[in-house]
Amino acid sequence: MHFYRKLYVGESIKYPELVKWRLRHYAGQLSVYVLTMPEQGCMPELMHSAFLKQPWYRNHPPMILGIASGKTEALELLRQIVQEAVDATGSPDVRSYLFPHGILKNGRGTEVQG
């Protein structure tokens, strides 16, 4: 699983490192939602963390941009990221805002350059 270096964290997440550890180990978390960057496209996707337990994600680890407690908080994080992209570039293209040089994965595959 790959985490954005400047991971967006919802206000209700008290221990983000613990949440990241649980996500890496495919442990269940009922209230956690994640924002992921798809392979193609410019807009992040919102999904419940339970989807990450599917076998497909073990072979194709997603790029996680943000974690939130609850869907409402996750939507607020998504709004914040898009607003930052629009303010900085004038475009809602989140991929080119967060990764202007492309996505660079480190050797361990746990965090990425932004």
Keywords:
single chain, 114 residues, alpha/beta, five-stranded mixed beta sheet, globular
**What is the average per-residue confidence, as pLDDT, rounded to a whole number?**
89
Major beta sheet, strand line-up:
3-2-4-1-5
Helix content: 25-40%
Question: What amount of the residues lies in strands?
Answer: 15-25%
How many β-strands, per DSSP?
Answer: 5
How do the SSEs run, as a string of H and E? Answer: EHEEHEHHE
Could you tell me the radius of gyration in angstroms?
13 Å
Uncertain residue segments: none
Q: How many strands, which pairing sense, and closed or not: the largest β-sheet?
A: 5 strands, mixed
What is the count of DSSP helices, taking H or I runs of 4+ residues?
A: 4
Report how far apart the termini are. 16 Å
Structural class: alpha/beta
Spatial shape: globular
The gist of it:
The protein is globular, with a radius of gyration of 13 Å.
